[in-house]
Structure formats: structure tokens, C-alpha cells
């Protein structure tokens, strides 16, 4: 499935007439595209033309121990290669230790910024951290302190960061089953300024925002992420003309008050699809990048939830997004020009 979009090449024949090589078709793929585990994926395209994906800390059960925010790279969103971890050892500032979940990768000038969650299950004071690097491969240097913790910001279970950049003004959106909130970041991104604004109610976590034709679309996951074959994760959406809401579904219901349209849900092959990113290919098509659990193999041998990364086309119908998946058969992949 390795592929590069063919460049148009002029060939001169003996007759002197030019030939132009046909463009190669998109790659074919079958889910999953990243294994064995790559939960909560966040994706960025770097200056080298390649894609980089960052995932939640997990033990793959291969004797290599825990991967502290594993990094994968791909030329085409289909063929991925593991290249190492964002951290060789977990940041030391989190009192009592923790796991490093739900990273979000973004770019500010020459720096790649990796926002991440630092938390334990049931942690009374989870935090959002920040590490930076000059290269998407790292090495990442941690800030050495949190951007904020739950007790600082007044929002319980402060994990799952997403950063929206609009003309240099950046907003951090986050939350997990205690409301989805937004707050402005200081210019250097290392702390919150102002008061949090609630965007959605306590059913949700894992925010992702994309902008299209005058609307901000807020994708959120609801249900259980990590109960093996019993996982109920489902992706919902609402849209707004303002980043700070209100976000309404197609029936006009507020995500802050029970609203939300389903974008992606379980099927006979996959359960618990969610915690998505959205990537636009070189032909302008949008792709959903997310994790899900295979119904017939829900856990690795070491008991870890089997949450590989999947991709599927994000379709738009009358201004509303929908994913016809999770797909379980061979699909036509994204259109991506050669790096």
C-alpha cells in the first residue's frame, strides 16, 4: 500500500510528441492502519510533507514496556511506521505520577507543541502538560510544570486537550465527563488566561474542532472508551457560528443541554469508535482518524484494550458530517502528493 502520487512527467518520443504520465490512483487500505495500539490519535503534517501521529501511552505487550506517547509517521495516512516516543521517561512534575494520555499536536512558528493529559484513573487533580520540539520526531522538551490542573482551573477531570489557533490567538478546549470547556491561552501557550466557557455538557470528552463554510464543528466522544468488547464510545457533533458556541445539532438542540448528532458508532466489526482527529487530503477530502476496538479481539494478551487507529472518509451532507464506518473492507485511501 505504499504509494506516492505520480508527478506529471513529459516524455519526448521519437516522433517528438510529448506524453504525460497518468496520475497514480489513491492507495487502497483496510482498517486498522496503525497497530497494535494507538489510541486517541492526533495528527499533523510537517514541513517534510509527511504525517505524524501521536497516541496515548500504552503497553503493547511485546516486552518493550510502556510507550510514553508513541509517535508514528506516514507519507499517505495509510502506511504508518513507529519511530519512537515523545518522552524517554515520563515528566516528573506530576505529584503521585500518572499516565500520559490524549496528546494534541500543534505548530507555533518553528516549534511543534505537544499538549497532553497527565492523570491516573480517578485522579482528583489531573493536569494538562506541554512539551515542545523543533522537529515532529522530537526530542520533546517538557515545560516542567502543567499548563493547568483541575484545581487551578476549577474544572474536574481536566484532560483531553485540543488547541484552536485563529490568527495567532489560541484557545484550549478540553474536558472529560464534567463538561467541555474553552479558555484562551497566553501568547506563549504555557498558561490559561481569562475564565473558562462551557461548550458542552457532562456526557462528553475528547473535543476536536474543524471549520467549514462559516461554521465551527465540535466533535465529541460519549460513552465508555475502554471496556473491551463492551465499550460504548460514539462520536457526536454540533456546530456554531462562534468558536465559543452555542453548538447546536441539526434539530437545533444545544450540546450543553442534551443535543448532538451521531457521526460514528459501533457496528458488527468494531466497537467503541471515537476520540478523533480530522485531516484534509490534497484533493480537499476530509478524513476521520480515530481509534476503535475489534469486536472479536478486544484486548491484547496482557489485558490492555486493543485500540488501534482507523481512518475513514468524512462525508458532508447538507452541511453536516457523517462517517460511513468503521469500515471493515478494503477502501480507497486519501489523495496525498509525494513528500
UniProtKB/TrEMBL annotation:
SUPFAM superfamilies: Arabinanase/levansucrase/invertase. Pathway: Glycan metabolism; L-arabinan degradation. The active site is at residues 40, 205. GO terms for molecular function: hydrolase activity, hydrolyzing O-glycosyl compounds. InterPro entries: GH43_arabinanases (IPR050727), Glyco_hydro_43 (IPR006710), Glyco_hydro_beta-prop_sf (IPR023296). The keyword Hydrolase applies. CDD domains: GH43_ABN-like (cd18616). Gene3D superfamilies: Glycosyl hydrolase domain, family 43. It holds the Pfam family Glyco_hydro_43. GO terms for biological process: carbohydrate metabolic process. Keywords: Glycosidase, Hydrolase, Signal. The keyword Ribonucleoprotein does not apply. The record marks 160 as: Important for catalytic activity, responsible for pKa modulation of the active site Glu and correct orientation of both the proton donor and substrate. PANTHER family: ARABINAN ENDO-1,5-ALPHA-L-ARABINOSIDASE, ARABINAN ENDO-1,5-ALPHA-L-ARABINOSIDASE A-RELATED. Belongs to the glycosyl hydrolase 43 family. This is Glycoside hydrolase family 43. It comes from Truepera radiovictrix (strain DSM 17093 / CIP 108686 / LMG 22925 / RQ-24).
Amino acid at each position: 500500500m505504499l504509494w506516492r502520487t505520480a508527478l506529471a512527467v513529459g516524455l519526448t518520443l521519437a516522433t517528438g510528441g510529448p506524453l504525460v504520465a497518468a496520475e497514480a490512483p489513491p492507495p487502497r487500505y483496510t482498517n486498522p492502519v496503525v497497530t497494535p495500539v494507538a489510541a486517541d490519535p492526533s495528527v499533523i503534517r510537517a514541513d517534510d510533507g509527511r504525517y505524524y501521529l501521536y497516541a496515548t501511552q500504552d503497553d503493547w505487550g511485546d516486552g518493550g514496556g510502556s510507550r510514553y506517547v508513541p509517535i508514528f509517521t506516514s507519507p499517505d495516512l495509510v502506511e504508518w511506521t513507529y519511530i519512537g516516543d515523545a518522552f524517554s521517561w515520563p515528566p516528573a512534575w506530576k505529584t503521585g505520577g500518572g499516565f500520559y494520555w490524549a496528546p494534541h499536536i500543534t505548530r507555533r512558528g518553528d516549534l511543534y507543541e505537544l499538549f497532553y493529559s497527565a492523570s491516573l484513573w480517578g485522579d482528583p487533580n489531573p493536569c494538562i502538560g506541554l512539551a515542545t520540539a523543533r522537529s515532529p520526531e522530537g526530542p520533546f522538551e517538557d515545560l516542567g510544570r502543567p499548563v493547568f490542573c483541575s484545581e487551578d482551573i476549577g474544572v474536574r477531570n481536566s484532560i483531553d486537550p485540543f488547541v484552536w489557533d485563529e490568527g495567532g490567538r489560541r484557545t484550549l478546549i478540553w474536558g472529560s465527563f464534567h463538561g467541555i470547556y474553552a479558555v484562551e491561552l497566553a501568547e506563549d501557550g504555557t498558561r490559561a488566561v481569562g475564565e473558562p466557557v462551557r461548550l458542552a455538557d457532562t456526557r462528553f470528552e475528547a473535543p476536536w474542532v474543524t471549520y467549514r463554510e462559516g461554521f465551527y464543528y465540535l466533535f465529541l466522544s460519549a460513552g465508555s472508551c475502554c471496556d473491551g468488547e463492551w465499550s460504548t464510545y460514539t462520536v457526536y457533533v454540533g456546530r456554531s457560528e462562534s468558536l465559543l458556541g452555542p453548538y447546536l445539532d441539526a434539530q437545533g438542540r444545544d450540546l450543553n443541554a442534551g443535543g448532538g448528532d451521531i457521526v460514528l458508532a459501533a457496528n458488527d466489526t468494531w466497537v467503541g469508535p471515537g476520540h478523533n482527529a480530522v485531516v484534509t487530503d490534497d484533493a480537499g477530502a476530509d478524513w476521520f482518524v480515530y481509534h476503535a476496538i475489534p469486536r472479536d479481539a478486544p484486548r491484547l494478551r496482557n489485558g490492555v484494550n486493543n485500540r488501534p487507529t482507523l481512518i475513514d472518509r468524512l462525508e458532508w451532507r447538507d452541511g453536516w458530517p457523517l462517517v460511513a464506518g468503521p469500515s471493515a473492507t478494503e477502501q480507497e485511501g486519501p489523495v496525498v502528493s509525494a513528500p
